[in-house]
Amino acid sequence: MKQLIRLTVNDREYEVGVDPNTTLVDLLRGHLGLTGTKKGCDLGDCGACTVLLDGKAVNSCLVLAVQAGDRTVQTIEGLETAQGLHPLQQAFIEKGAIQCGFCSSGMILSAKELLDRSPHPAEPEIRRAISGNLCRCTGYQKIIEAIKDAAR
Amino acid sequence: MILPKFEFHEPTSISDACELMARHRGEARLLAGGTDLLVNMKKKVLNPKRLVSLGRIPELTQVERSNGTLWIGAGATVSAIAASAMVARDASALGLGARALGTPLIRNLATIGGNIGSARPAADLPPALIVYGAVLVLRSVAGERRLPIGEFFKGPGLTAAHEDELIAAVVIQVPAGYAGAGYLNLGVRKAQDCNIVNVASYLELDGRAEVIRAARVALGSVGPTPLRSPSAEAVLIGQKPTEALFDLAADAAQRDCMPILDFRGSAEYRRDMVGVLARRTLTMALAEARSRN
Question: Which chain B residues are closer than 8 Å to A111 by Cβ?
């Protein structure tokens, strides 16, 4: 039976009926049309589906949509403001840290959680922060440079 | 990957959760961080009729210290434990285990109760909890009981918890002065990896004479459950801590493990690494014990 949940996604409130076995990534992509969150392995291994749940970076494939009820979700679509792209998004473009782009949303959100709590991280901290996000293009070096650049 | 269908409950208190587990005995499973259970459900390894989520029970997430006791609510996330200054000071080996577990994304979801309750032989938190002599607080409609963590694990995925029981908290006696611990894990990668071997060691020194008064060594990933190493502990107790003694203890620890051979490593390699990690964690424990006076 569907359950009615309320949640805030990118500062917008939604009220939506979901089956208990719907995951947060499927709610975002399928029901809310927010396809910037990618679905890779669907098993918590690749990090493509990373979103911020109450400010914490998590695999949205391992969270049930009902568990996100009454909570706040931020996806890649929520980073741009009237002033333009988020500094991390801008740095990813400028440093060539986006190749195929499939890992970018997750990489940027993992990096955002890091910079929100540690504005000027050392490189080992950056590497640790994105250790749950896999890049099949192996563009890690440029991703790390972009995060360093955004933190300056 | 489609999750099988299930009925979903989100109680807001421990007693409500216990009620639900009792009412649906045998067909309900507890959902903590979901990083193990949901994966197994997607892979169709598990197919519970009902899930009782522990995610909205505030009393489960307390981490506090009082009267020399560290109380860690079972719902505390692994990242909260990894970031806790209190854990780093009073139970450093547990903090190291928390930082070694999974990835930052997994650590933000996974809980200490889930890591214990899922009873995976290679789990990162149990070895440290075993050497600290942690006690589990188990709750059900029948009430509360306390069980030393060493008596909890019965096999891969099997525990001493009753079907309708949940882990409410983990209680650790904060080590006294001249006591210290260490934890190390060995895998192929630094993140998102299943351990090949993981070991925790604990030493308590008789302050002035520097004689080892108590020693505990726990070996992970080399048996159906995390294992204590009674032989290594017997070598250590009553002796002065030296490199030669740690070598003897490491050899003894190798005799106490029963590793399997799989694609992650051969049994011989695992046994050798048990020795290496035992020696290194004993050295860590000694350094910490000397610094805590």
Answer: none
